[in-house]
Amino acid sequence: xxxxxxxxxxxxxxxxxxxVSAIALAQTAPDVPPRPQHPMGEPGxxxxxxxxxxxxxxxxxxxxxxxxxxxxxxxxTFIQSVTPKAMPPREDFKELDKLTTPxxxxxxxxxxxxxxxxxxxxxxxxxxxYATLTPEQQKIFDESHRRLQHKMQGHMARQxxxxxxxxxxxxxx
Length: 173
Hints:
By secondary structure, the protein is an all-alpha fold. Among the domains are: 95-132; 134-167. It is built from six helices and no strands. The protein is elongated, with a radius of gyration of 26 Å.
């Protein structure tokens, strides 16, 4: 009987030690070296570069689609409606920290509604323009949009991974 008690006690002590060790290891943050500064600030954050890339992409798409004179007004309306507007100022994280969790969530929901509204506007403009395209032009447009979407998703995933926001990153010690 004493032998079983000692074995049980030993098992409990060992299990507890392993649990405490695991918790301590999980809470130890690895040293992350500071990110080197990019000479032009954050890559992709320069508004002028972004405008240039957007204009270049639109010019290439215009040429690839072989937009006709009859389609030109619809093209201009489409481009005007999908051109990114000025980026709103970033949230002040110190101010956000002062808010309660429900208040922060409400702010997030407001931002999501603004994004959804902008996306609905772009969708309406895209549908109107898309209807002016020939079936061949629609195929080209679809493929161009698909490539751009994949490229953007890859870029976003890389940025999230750099910041440590990638899925599964919170699970790692």
